[in-house]
């Protein structure tokens, strides 16, 4: 028996943009890549990188990004808010924090495209926790058999 994902689309929505570090100089440029996969309908993955440095990936709720375009949003490690001339994304970790500033238009377009792919409040049509748990159980049973365990 083969367990299939709840939704098999491979649609990935992507946008690339340049942000600047708040309080920095115009040379403090951060590249950002935002990705949305319809197979993960609740999440947006964002990679941020300084020139010459490896990218760091953050995962946020699509709702957080969408809300942050029009009003301050987020209470945790990621906070997003509109500014007079764009958008501010604040990232907080045990290693430090950064506020990134940029143009809001690429993110408005990105969020619009994600909502066209998976309409708001329809995420559950693209994701099934039961199907995910079934796949996890199947993988666990297969791994146990490969190790010589009976899987009980």
TrEMBL record:
Its Gene Ontology biological processes? division septum assembly; sporulation resulting in formation of a cellular spore
Annotated localization: Cell septum
Q: What is its main location?
A: other
Task: Name the keywords, alphabetized.
Answer: Cell cycle, Cell division, Septation, Sporulation
In terms of domain of life, where is this protein from? Bacteria
Q: Among the entry's GO cellular component annotations, what is one?
A: cell septum
**Gene3D superfamilies found in the cross-reference section:** Sporulation-specific cell division protein SsgB
Please give the Pfam families that the UniProt record associates with this protein: SsgA (PF04686)
**Family label:** Belongs to the SsgA family.
**Name this protein carries in UniProt:** SsgA family sporulation/cell division regulator
To which species is this protein native? Answer: Nakamurella antarctica
């Amino acid at each position: 028996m083969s367990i299939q994902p709840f939704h098999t689309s491979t649609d990935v929505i992507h946008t690339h943009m340049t942000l600047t570090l708040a309080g920095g100089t115009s040379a403090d440029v951060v590249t950002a890549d935002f990705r949305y996969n319809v197979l993960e309908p609740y999440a947006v993955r964002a990679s941020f990188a300084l020139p010459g440095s490896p990218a760091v990936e953050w995962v946020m709720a699509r709702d957080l990004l969408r809300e942050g375009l029009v009003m301050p949003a987020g209470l945790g490690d990621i906070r997003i808010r509109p500014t007079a001339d764009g958008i501010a994304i604040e990232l907080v970790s045990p290693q430090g924090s950064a506020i990134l500033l940029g143009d809001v238009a690429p993110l408005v377009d990105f969020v619009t495209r994600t909502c066209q792919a998976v309409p708001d409040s329809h995420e559950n049509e693209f994701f099934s926790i039961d199907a995910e748990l079934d796949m996890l159980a199947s993988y666990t049973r297969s791994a146990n058999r490969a190790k010589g365990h009976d899987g009980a």
